[in-house]
């Protein structure tokens, strides 16, 4: 149920080709493909630090003003960072384009491979050795009973010989079928772009769905080995425990909002071109039709899938161990309309692009039984989504 002030274009490819950085928001999901242009209003000031109640108040005031000006069902789009107190990027767009179909042609983006050419500089933060040291520190906290899970991430900073075009990179991610949710968001000094496999929450009328992913294995080019890895993931005690921690946390966060809530007893498998993931689709019926997708997303963010459990203890461990600010990585990106419908995606498999500079992100969930070398390898596999779209080997 996209806002009615929409404009139809010929296809999802038409929206993809229309996208350009600097004035657009783009999100392609199984529900459809959304492109917005321009800004009618920007959520600014204190509300922009994503205090959910203040954001909702500010947005509702803006929406009411727009409705009096003839907009039937205005929306908000944008991105929220991982850490509380950091500025979000949330706007009310001027134009909204929507296409129900999401399937791109098989040759979408072909011949248009985004490559930065010569990479003049590549920095890993933290270094592989330091990342594994961080995993060991996290395992110490888990053994001490401070945590049951914490997600530790690292970045790749690339400086290319030529500017990277976000529009080309977005087209390549879509062509590669890199994830269920392909997105691009304008930030003040960069473009946030990615292909996430993970739905934070979707709300349609009184029904909501969330689809957490936790527990992962890298894909193999050998079909036999690839299937072995998938089967092993489904029976891995360590990964099933990690997934159960996430599902339990999400159900607990959603229970106050839902009349009914259904979660599968065991996870299933989903795949991307680079990874296998354990997946659980959790569905609920809302208690109150006034509860918006933004309300639900704020209650869930950040889930144990990208932070850990308990949440505050995991956040403290991340601040202590990770040597960088995540920014919008492991935040959320999406939309909400004035009826409360909307869709918010977990911001993973992504990069920040600014001219010749790119910053890529990847993380892994640390639980009892995790091994530092294996977690490092998992982050390396997750980097491949963006590296492949840029025409670079990992």
UniProtKB/TrEMBL annotation:
UniProt record, GO biological process: salicylic acid biosynthetic process
UniProt keyword terms in alphabetical order: Isomerase
MF annotations from Gene Ontology: isochorismate synthase activity
Domain Chorismate-utilising enzyme C-terminal, first and last residues per copy: 129-382
EC identifiers of the protein: 5.4.4.2
Transferase recorded as keyword: no
InterPro entries per UniProt: ADC_synthase, Chorismate_C, IsoChor_synthase
Reactions catalysed according to its record: chorismate = isochorismate
SUPFAM superfamilies, alphabetized: ADC synthase
Homology family: Belongs to the isochorismate synthase family.
Designated name of the protein: isochorismate synthase
Lineage per the UniProt record: Bacteria, Bacillati, Bacillota, Bacilli, Bacillales
């Amino acid at each position: 149920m996209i806002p009615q002030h929409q404009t139809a274009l010929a296809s999802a490819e038409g929206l993809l080709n229309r996208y350009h950085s600097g004035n657009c928001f783009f999100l392609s999901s199984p529900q459809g493909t959304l492109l917005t242009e321009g800004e009618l209003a920007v959520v600014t000031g204190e509300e922009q630090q994503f205090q959910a109640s203040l954001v909702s108040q500010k947005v509702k005031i803006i929406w009411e003003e727009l409705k009096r000006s003839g907009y039937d069902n205005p929306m908000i789009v944008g991105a929220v960072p991982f850490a509380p107190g950091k500025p979000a990027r949330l706007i009310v767009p001027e134009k909204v384009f929507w296409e129900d179909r999401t399937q791109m042609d098989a040759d979408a983006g072909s011949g248009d491979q985004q490559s930065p050419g010569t990479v003049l500089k590549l920095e890993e933060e933290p270094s592989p050795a330091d990342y594994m040291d961080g995993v060991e520190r996290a395992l110490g906290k888990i053994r001490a009973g401070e945590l049951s899970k914490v997600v530790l991430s690292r970045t790749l900073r690339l400086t290319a010989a030529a500017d990277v075009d976000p529009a080309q990179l977005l087209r390549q991610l879509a062509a590669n079928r890199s994830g269920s949710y392909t997105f691009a968001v304008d930030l003040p000094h960069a473009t946030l772009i990615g292909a996430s496999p993970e739905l934070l929450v979707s709300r349609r009328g009184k029904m909501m769905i969330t689809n957490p992913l936790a527990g992962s294995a890298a894909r193999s080019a050998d079909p036999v080995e690839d299937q072995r890895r998938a089967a092993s993931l489904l029976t891995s005690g360590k990964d099933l425990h990690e997934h159960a921690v996430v599902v339990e946390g999400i159900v607990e966060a959603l229970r106050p909002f839902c009349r009914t809530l259904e979660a599968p007893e065991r996870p299933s498998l989903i795949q991307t071109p680079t990874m296998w993931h354990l997946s659980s689709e959790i569905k609920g019926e809302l208690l109150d039709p006034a509860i918006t997708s933004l309300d639900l997303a704020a209650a869930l963010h950040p889930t144990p899938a990208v932070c850990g459990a308990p949440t505050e203890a995991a956040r403290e461990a991340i601040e202590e161990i990770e040597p960088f600010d995540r920014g919008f990585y492991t935040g959320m990106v999406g939309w909400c309309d004035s009826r409360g419908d909307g869709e918010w995606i977990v911001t993973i498999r992504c990069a920040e692009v600014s001219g010749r500079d790119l910053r890529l992100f990847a993380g892994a969930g640390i639980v009892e039984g995790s091994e530092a070398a294996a977690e490092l390898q998992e982050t390396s596999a997750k980097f491949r989504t963006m590296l492949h779209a840029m025409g670079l080997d990992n």
